[in-house]
Amino acid sequence: MKTPDFDEKRFRPLLAEALDGELDESGRREFNRILTDSAEARREYRALMDLHARLHLEYNGGSGADDMPQTTPAHAAKPVPFRRTRWIAAAAVIALLAVLVSGKNKPPKSFATLQTASSARWGGGDLPTREGSRLGQGTLQLQEGLAVIRFDSGAEVSLEAPAELRIIDAMNCHITHGTAVAQVPESATGFRIGTPSAMVIDYGTRFSVCVDPESGDTRTQVFDGLVEMENPATGQVVALRTGQRASVEGSKTGPVTDGFDERFPSGKPEFLPSGPDWMMLEASKDAYIGYTLHTDSEHLLYVKHGQDGFHRKTYLGFDLSGVDPARIGSARLMLNFAPTGLGLASHVPDATFSVYGLTGADQPWDEAELSRGNAPANVKNTGAGLVAHEVRRLGTFVVPQGVQSGLFGIEADTLAEYLRERSGSTITLIVVRETAETDSTGLIHGIASHRHPTLPAPTLAIRLRQE
Amino acid sequence: MKASQLSPGIFSSSIPQFPSHPCPNPTPPFISDLTDWQNRLFGYLVTLLGNVHDARDVLQETNLVMWRRMDTFTPGTDFGAWARKCAYFQAMAFLRDRKRGPSLLGEELIALIAEEEGQSHADENERKLALRDCLSGLSDEHRALVKRRYHDATPLGKLATDCGKSESAMKMTLLRIRELLHVCIDSKLKETAS
Fold first, then answer.
1. Which residues contact residue A123 at a Cβ distance below 8 angstroms, ignoring those fewer than 6 apart?
2. Contact (Cβ atoms closer than 8 angstroms) between residue A424 and residue A327
3. From residue B33, how far is each of A131, A365, A443, B41, B154 by CA, in Å?
4. For chain A, what are the domain ranges?
5. Mind listing the pLDDT tens digit for each residue in B15-31?
6. CA nearest A15: which of A40, A1, A3, A2?
7. Can B30-116 and B124-193 be said to share one CATH topology?
């Protein structure tokens, strides 16, 4: 038998601590030394860390329990409190580090105040969301409403939902997506808002920054004063004055334009396709598979990623015969959600749904006969499992926790492309919930079937190109 | 501040930026590649960063970056290598950006581990199924512990008390279970490969 080239007796307790606790300074140093010296130790580390990640995914879909600090209160079952306790635990270290690094005596732990949060609904950030709360480093996720954050530098940022803001310090924040309007007094000149695609630096002004949730593109417009917008990808900096706007799109800086632009992605227009440009195609058949009982619905298609085999997946059939591929411009799948009355919303976090298209020749299925056993591409007894080479993922959408009704769906080039490839035949789309319930008896989501007496059927809206 | 040796051009400000060259190239199946790779990238980032919490944040950033930079991926080339490279740079950016305590691993060690991380040959689905098989092969007691740890997020102190162990003994038990799982998964994957 081969003996390892590193001191296992020393290494394993350190690894155990790294996985389930927190290594102190000397432990970390020794751990690093062993790993640096031994490829075998690194292999071991990689294998167990990867497994650790997979266990998180397996049990929580990646969104649940976090590292397990000993200080976690026993009743806490959501990730947010963990983060917070971690922060507190780390605060001493941060403070010490800040002293060493910056030489400041008492680095502030908070940099801003949550001034107003009118009718705000919050997502899973890690900062307090009560009005008047002091805010340190961390993230605010605003799902609905408006929140005003007043930085200690004097800068005031109104966050418009849906948006995510990370507070870095009194002079810096980062907007991952959404819209913010900043009012920056002289005291805060140099205030910076980072985005995934740009850095906006203020020189005493009022301006808005708008970050597209999908592309990360940034649009900045100045209502009063002067800001600079830097494109980190190219290093290009543009100066924007009162009444001017510019954007960074696809890592390119657009021209500086006079006048304002009303297209703010946060507006989330309820866009309903209509008119002669649009072809509306209702599902010709639909069904769901999985665990079925007397609770079965004729009118709703169930979707659930449960535990212990209680899963549901929805299958949709559309007839594309007579659709000219050359005329398919863009496409949208629209699904009307409605409450099933089954399961607990508390046990399902914000839920990501994926829409898959069956690849290869469309396989016939009958809506009355479809089952776990005969459904195309289905991997039995999995919440979201499909045979990878038989499907293509066309897009995803998120239904926030607790939301059971409303119009959801995808609009993606991948969908249009898929329809173009398959026009003239029938197609099968599969809707699964990637997000697993965090505890049993979680909510079952319902999508109106084409049999639903009042709600519209699952519908493909195809924007037709001019002939 | 500009460009360090390790990751050229990463930082000139406090937000993670993307270096101008290192993400080589996707196609229309880009999105399915991206989604297929989520679990693997997550594992990769947990390995580099040493914890799940940071890995989740960096994975989000990485996805955004990959979205924005998808034009730099050449269809037909190794998506995984490209994605890992993107993730690596985001991880380094994250570590430099953050003002919290030191990361589990030092920068050079992270670079070394990132470099060694080979292509995962096993199919993602098989890996998942193997994990499930191996979980069901654990003793009831061990499986319950794993569930309490990962699903219920029971604090370690409570786990230890309930089992009548010290916290460090509890950590060693959890390590031992993971080692068992790892060996089991490995042998299952080898079985299916042969």
1. A141, A142, A143, A164, A350, A400
2. no
3. 42, 28, 29, 11, 34
4. 8-64, 72-107, 109-267, 278-464
5. 333 333 333 333 445 56
6. A40
7. no
Instruction: Say if residue B54 is exposed, middle or buried (CB neighbours under 10 Å; 0-12, 13-18, 19+).
Output: buried
DSSP code at position B106: -
CA pseudo-torsion sign A151, A163, A66, B16: negative
Q: Which residues of B touch A215 (CB under 8 A)?
A: 67-68
Question: Can you tell me the mean pLDDT for A334-338?
Answer: 91
Interface test with B, best of A24, A57, A87, A440 (most B CBs within 10 A): A57
Question: What CA–CA distance (Å, rounded) separates A105 from A6?
Answer: 42
The minimum CA-CA distance between A346 and chain B, rounded to whole Å, is 14
Lowest mean pLDDT among A69-73, A344-348, B54-58: A69-73
In chain B, beta strands by DSSP E: none
What distance in Å separates the CA atoms of residue A399 and residue A402, rounded to the nearest whole number? 8
A167-200 pLDDT, tens per residue?
A: 988 889 999 988 888 998 877 888 999 998 898 9
Min CA distance, B138 vs chain A (Å)? 14
Please tell me the distance in Å from A249's CA to the nearest CA on chain B. Answer: 9
pLDDT digits (tens, 9 = 90+) for A231-272: 888 878 888 888 888 998 887 888 888 876 655 444 444 456
Q: Hey, is the C-beta of A99 within 8 angstroms of any chain B C-beta?
A: no
Among the partner-chain residues B14, B42, B168, the one whose CB lies closest to the CB of A172 is: B14
**Six-digit token string for A327:** 């005329």
- Which of B35, B36, B52 has its CB closest to that of A53? B52
* Domain boundaries A278-464, corresponding CATH code: 2.60.120.230
Q: Map out the domains of chain B as residue ranges.
A: 30-116, 124-193
Closest chain A residue to B147 measured between Cα atoms?
A59
Pairwise CB contact (< 8 Å): A36 & B108: yes
> Which residue is listed with tokens 């509306």?
A280
Q: Which of A172, A180, A178 is nearest to A201 (CA)?
A: A172
Fold of the CATH domain B30-116: Rna Polymerase Sigma Factor; Chain: A (1.10.1740)
Sign of the Cα torsion B31, B36, B38, B42 reads negative
- Contact (CB<8Å) A199/B100: no
- Give the number of other CB atoms < 10 A from CB of residue A274: 9
What is the residue whose two structure tokens read 């570590």?
B95
pTM (two decimals)? 0.40
Looking at every residue in chain A, the average pLDDT score rounds to 81
Q: What is the ipTM of this complex?
A: 0.84
CATH 2.60.120.1440 at A109-267, yes or no: yes
**Cβ separation of B35 and A412 shorter than 8 Å?**
no
Q: Is the pLDDT of residue A288 over 90?
A: yes
Taking alpha carbons only, the member of B69, B84, B88 closest to residue B25 is B69
| CATH architecture, domain defined by B124-193 | Orthogonal Bundle (1.10)
Q: Which two three-digit tokens encode residue B98?
A: 């953050």
- In chain B, what residues touch A58 (CB-CB under 8 Å)? 128, 131-132, 135, 150
Comparing C-alpha atoms, which of A350, A355, A353, A338 is closest to residue A301?
A338
Token pair 């950006």 is at which residue? B97
How far is the C-alpha of A164 from the C-alpha of A216, rounded, in Å?
A: 12
